[in-house]
Amino acid sequence: MIHLSTSGDADGSVAILVAGTRSTDLGAGVSSFLSPDAVVIAAPAGVYQLILQVDALGNVDEDDEGDNILVAGEVTVTPSGDPEGDCTDGVDDDFDGLVDCADDDCAGIPYCDPDIVGVEVTGTSLPTVVSQGGTVSLGYGYANMGGGTTTGLSPGQPMVNHVLLSSSTSLLDAVQTLRVGERTSDIDAGDDGFLSPIDVTVSVSAGTYQVLLNVDVTDVVDEGDESNNVLVAGSLTVTAL
Prior knowledge:
This protein has two domains: 2-77, no CATH class; 113-239, Sandwich (Immunoglobulin-like). The chain is built from no helices and twelve strands. The chain has strands at 2-5, 13-18, 46-53, 69-77, 116-123, 128-131, 135-144, 159-166, 174-183, 192-201, 207-214, 230-239. It has a five-stranded mixed sheet, with no helix packed on it. A four-stranded antiparallel sheet has the order 2-1-3-4, with no helix packed on it. The protein starts with a strand and ends with a strand.
């Protein structure tokens, strides 16, 4: 095998450029060659050692197993200068050492922005029934499903979340706010947060309502998708006393 390596051995290999096999025995003093061919160097920018590793699998029982590595020379890989291209594939497309949203080429792409969504309403299982003036246990969970970290969340500028009762699946028909919570620290891509359930009093008239979780109520998080901040968690029926 021919490797690009950050060191002088195979342990530092970042890419295998050529892999060849020998399927017949090799007589004493006999040499063998693999013809050159063009290869693509898919490695981040940097300085590497080009090494030839023979008998990589250790199939030959040799007198000296310590001389199977040849350091052939140095290879410098420069950034391609092309843009990242696909900012969602988990690959350093332009070989500058930065993957997807970590690359400045991906700035401004909605996928690389935060995207806060409600994940669940916890506590009392929904659907449920409660009498007027009764209590239910409610908490909630949310997550950043986008490719970027939120910026600027603090005690002075929190992300506010509400759990509400609505006569429909729309916030416009909300009739009672059951829980209010805040997030005061930034949320990394893929991270989540939870507010523990507590008992809250239901103070609306008899009827059937939807429990909604509305995250980032005051729109302090600049999101790639602002249309998915409301989770319809389930129904709650209020009975008359």
